[in-house]
Amino acid sequence: MANLNRHLTISEVEIYPLKPKGGLIGFASFLIEDSFYVGGVGIHTKPSGEIRLVYPTKTLPNGKELPLCHPINQAVGASVEQAVAQKLSTLAGSILDTRSGKIKSGRFS
Fold this sequence. Notes:
Shape: globular
CATH topology: Arylsulfatase, C-terminal domain
Number of helices: 1
Strand order of the largest sheet: 1-2-3-4
Order of helices and strands: EEEEEEH
CATH architecture: 2-Layer Sandwich
Strand content: 35-45%
Largest sheet: 4 strands, antiparallel
Structural class: alpha+beta
CATH class: Alpha Beta
Distance between the termini: 32 Å
């Protein structure tokens, strides 16, 4: 069994910005331990300015949502959130159109 308390390596973080709507500002994808790809993770802003990640789900015919992937503990969630936040911070200048103040569309890695 893997040691779930150790620090995970989160790499290849890519950000797909959107026009902000209802707090959703984009989507992220990343690799865990250079072995497991995770995509379709929603990036939302909190009123405090921090980000909140929402992991993908599958909606069943009966309306129930089935989680496809998500961190199983706070430490793993914090590692992912930190990597995504760091990438957002790094890309802030290239994502934001300084003339219009709007978020550019496209893929940023």
